[in-house]
């Protein structure tokens, strides 16, 4: 669903060892599988915190952590189960130990659901988990078959709806007013729809070979870019109006940064020809998966300066 990189004080643990040894290659691929969803999970946890801020509700650290673990479960599960297009789009995962990926996913899910159960919002944990399974593997009962991966924009709609409901639901579980919850759902749902479509641009080759009709494959790059731009403008217009009228907490920095960052992402990262540039990959990772981190960092700086 999304691609990301992990770096930091423990980054050396995950460096590839340059070797032709099959066992080492398998180990490297397995480590890549386990770490490939860390950044997107961390970003998701921070998005839940941002939702708390927009709803003007005291943020729950445990809820954010649990949400991040559920997100990690779904994305690692998707990669562990694998798919035809992933053999082209994510060659670094080829040969990884799927059982290890499934075991770690299950452990993260158990911890996440335990926390959410204590918070009284256990049901929300199963929405992305079930949807993630239907997305990755699907179900087949007799002649009836259902798999959410593929179709003209279906995957992007599923991603937007699932994570929009998940984020708004976790943050808004204690909110008595439905209107701000719906607005937060629209904001994050549209944002994640757009982000998933942006990542489809780098997977055009693999999706085409696998017969997956993503938006860029079906509509072409320019029409898809226009669609994403229109959705981005409308969602932020609705959020801006809500902030002005006091329906949501007055957080103009969150909305402004999200607006600017989103426009940059749509214009800069919808060209598959630039994907080979390492600088472009790093820039995309920072602006897409790192957006929530940047927003909160800027908000902390602004608060310190004002105080």
Write the layout of secondary structure elements.
Layout: H1 22-35, H2 38-54, H3 61-81, H4 86-89, H5 98-119, H6 123-136, E1 139-141, E2 144-146, H7 154-171, H8 178-202, H9 204-210, H10 215-219, H11 221-244, H12 252-268, H13 278-289, H14 291-306
Antiparallel strand pairs: 1-2
Helix pairs in contact: 2-3, 2-7, 2-14, 3-5, 3-6, 5-6, 6-7, 7-8, 8-11, 11-12, 12-14, 13-14
Question: Mind explaining what this structure looks like?
Answer:
The longest helix is centred in the middle third of the chain and has 25 residues. Helix 3 packs parallel to helix 6, helix 11 runs antiparallel to helix 12 and helix 12 runs antiparallel to helix 14. Helices cover 70% and strands 2% of the residues. A hairpin with a 2-residue loop joins strand 1 and strand 2. The chain has a two-stranded antiparallel sheet. It has 307 residues and is mainly α. It has 14 helices and two strands; from the N terminus they run ααααααββαααααααα.
Question: Hey, roughly how much beta strand do the residues contain?
Answer: under 5%
Q: Record the strand order, biggest sheet.
A: 1-2
Specify Rg, calculated over alpha carbons: 19 Å
Total beta strands: 2
Structural class: mainly alpha
The secondary-structure element order is HHHHHHEEHHHHHHHH
Cα shape: globular
The largest sheet is:
2 strands, antiparallel
**Taking all residues together, what is the mean pLDDT?**
81
CA distance, first residue to last residue: 40 Å
Total number of helical segments?
Answer: 14
Q: Which regions contain 5 or more consecutive residues with pLDDT less than 50?
A: 1-19
Task: Report the helical percentage.
Answer: over 70%
């Amino acid at each position: 669903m999304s691609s990301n990189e992990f770096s930091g004080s423990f980054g050396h643990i995950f460096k590839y060892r340059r070797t032709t040894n099959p066992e080492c290659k398998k180990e490297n691929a397995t480590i890549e599988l386990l770490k490939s969803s860390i950044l997107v999970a961390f970003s998701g946890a921070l998005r839940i915190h941002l939702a708390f801020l927009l709803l003007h509700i005291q943020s729950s650290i445990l809820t954010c952590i649990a949400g991040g673990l559920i997100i990690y479960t779904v994305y690692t599960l998707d990669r562990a189960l694998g798919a035809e297009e992933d053999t082209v789009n994510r060659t670094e995962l080829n040969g990884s130990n799927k059982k290890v990926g499934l075991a770690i996913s299950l452990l993260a899910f158990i911890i996440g659901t335990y926390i959410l159960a204590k918070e009284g919002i256990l049901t929300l944990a199963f929405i992305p988990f079930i949807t993630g399974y239907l997305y990755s593997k699907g179900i087949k009962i007799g002649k009836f078959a259902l798999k959410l991966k593929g179709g003209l924009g279906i995957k992007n709609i599923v991603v937007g709806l699932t994570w929009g409901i998940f984020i708004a639901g976790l943050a808004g579980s204690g909110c008595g007013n439905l209107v701000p919850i719906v607005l937060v759902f629209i904001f994050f749902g549209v944002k994640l729809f757009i982000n998933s479509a942006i990542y489809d641009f780098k997977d055009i080759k693999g999706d085409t070979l696998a017969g997956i009709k993503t938006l860029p494959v079906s509509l072409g790059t320019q029409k898809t870019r226009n669609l994403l731009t229109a959705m981005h403008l409308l969602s932020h217009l609705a959020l801006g109006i809500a902030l002005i009228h006091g329906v949501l907490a007055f957080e103009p920095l969150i909305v402004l940064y999200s607006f600017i960052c989103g426009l940059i992402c749509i214009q800069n990262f919808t060209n598959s020809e630039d994907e080979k540039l390492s600088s472009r990959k790093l820039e995309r990772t920072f602006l897409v998966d790192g957006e929530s981190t940047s927003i909160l960092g800027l908000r902390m700086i602004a608060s310190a300066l004002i105080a």
